[in-house]
């Protein structure tokens, strides 16, 4: 393809992406208008109009001074602890999951031995372990971090294992014929080859981490977004409750967008080697 043709293709792809974004914004705007009208007509205490939710969102989370980036005291009291727990749990799951996945993927006996146990662990809902975690850790941040880490561990571990086991046999054979050192084989063959699967598992785990963060805080926390949601529900302050839900949705969108950028930068080579027509539609 010529340079001129490549530029035209890139511009066309950008235009299509922009068109899809505009369509999504129109749909979102229409849904918000319908919500506003329906909520005002119904007069429900539990589902307030969008305008009230937006006002509560600004007042609750963005009423701070410019020196604090407009973040309120409530944001620092409830959101910062939640994000700290999420980061610790997700980071621990990523470190353990990637390391263990590579180990059992490379060492066949370990894979054969641990694979049934891993599948069993995946089949147990992490939320069912909440009462046991409370007994062991108490109502502490350690309990929240433990549940988040345990829930995020399995997708990362399984995807890492599948990525290592699914390496191109031709590439592996070529690497062995070149007698690469273990370090070079790991850095130049194994890790790049398994990285698309690893990133897929890590991206799935972002949503799981958010869900488990909220669930663990709903039942066992003295601060955090989940704790804040429960407290507002008990006080019948539903605009503030919905404002917390909106904040959670925005955090999920932000984390996925950041991860997509990181993945696009680090796995640029993977997109370049895919055959034409492999992109999703």
Automatic annotation (TrEMBL):
<dbReference type="Pfam" id="PF00528">
    <property type="entry name" value="BPD_transp_1"/>
</dbReference>
<keyword id="KW-0812">Transmembrane</keyword>
<feature type="transmembrane region" description="Helical">
    <location>
        <begin position="128"/>
        <end position="157"/>
    </location>
</feature>
<keyword id="KW-1133">Transmembrane helix</keyword>
<protein>
    <submittedName>
        <fullName>ABC transporter permease</fullName>
    </submittedName>
</protein>
<dbReference type="GO" id="GO:0005886">
    <property type="term" value="C:plasma membrane"/>
</dbReference>
<dbReference type="GO" id="GO:0055085">
    <property type="term" value="P:transmembrane transport"/>
</dbReference>
<dbReference type="InterPro" id="IPR000515">
    <property type="entry name" value="MetI-like"/>
</dbReference>
<dbReference type="InterPro" id="IPR035906">
    <property type="entry name" value="MetI-like_sf"/>
</dbReference>
<feature type="transmembrane region" description="Helical">
    <location>
        <begin position="241"/>
        <end position="262"/>
    </location>
</feature>
<comment type="similarity">
    <text>Belongs to the binding-protein-dependent transport system permease family.</text>
</comment>
<keyword id="KW-0472">Membrane</keyword>
<feature type="transmembrane region" description="Helical">
    <location>
        <begin position="53"/>
        <end position="71"/>
    </location>
</feature>
<feature type="transmembrane region" description="Helical">
    <location>
        <begin position="208"/>
        <end position="229"/>
    </location>
</feature>
<keyword id="KW-1003">Cell membrane</keyword>
<feature type="transmembrane region" description="Helical">
    <location>
        <begin position="83"/>
        <end position="108"/>
    </location>
</feature>
<feature type="transmembrane region" description="Helical">
    <location>
        <begin position="25"/>
        <end position="47"/>
    </location>
</feature>
<keyword id="KW-0813">Transport</keyword>
<feature type="transmembrane region" description="Helical">
    <location>
        <begin position="185"/>
        <end position="202"/>
    </location>
</feature>
């Amino acid at each position: 393809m010529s340079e001129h043709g490549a530029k035209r293709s890139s511009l066309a792809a950008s235009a299509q992406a922009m068109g899809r974004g505009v369509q999504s914004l129109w749909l979102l705007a229409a849904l918000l208008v319908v919500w506003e009208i329906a909520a005002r007509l119904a007069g429900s205490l539990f589902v307030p109009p969008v305008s009230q939710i937006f006002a509560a969102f600004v007042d609750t989370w963005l009423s701070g001074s410019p020196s604090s980036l407009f973040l309120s005291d409530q944001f620092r009291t409830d959101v910062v602890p939640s994000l700290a727990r999420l980061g610790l749990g997700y980071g621990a799951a990523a470190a353990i999951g990637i390391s263990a996945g590579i180990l059992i993927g490379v060492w066949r006996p370990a894979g054969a031995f641990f694979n049934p146990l891993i599948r069993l662990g995946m089949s147990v809902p992490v939320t069912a372990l909440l009462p046991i975690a409370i007994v062991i850790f108490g109502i502490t941040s350690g309990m929240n971090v433990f549940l988040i880490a345990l829930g995020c561990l399995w997708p990362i571990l399984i995807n890492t294992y599948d990525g290592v086991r699914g390496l191109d046999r031709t590439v592996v054979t070529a690497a062995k014929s070149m007698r690469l050192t273990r370090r070079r084989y790991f850095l130049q063959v194994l890790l790049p080859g398994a990285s698309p699967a690893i990133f897929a598992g890590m991206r799935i785990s972002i949503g799981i981490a958010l869900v488990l963060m909220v669930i663990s805080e709903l039942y066992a926390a003295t601060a955090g977004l989940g704790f804040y949601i429960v407290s507002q529900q008990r006080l019948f302050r539903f605009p503030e409750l919905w404002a917390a839900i909106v904040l959670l949705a925005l955090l999920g969108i932000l984390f996925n967008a950041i991860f997509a950028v990181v993945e696009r930068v680090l796995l640029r080579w993977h997109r370049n080697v895919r055959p034409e027509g492999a992109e999703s539609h």
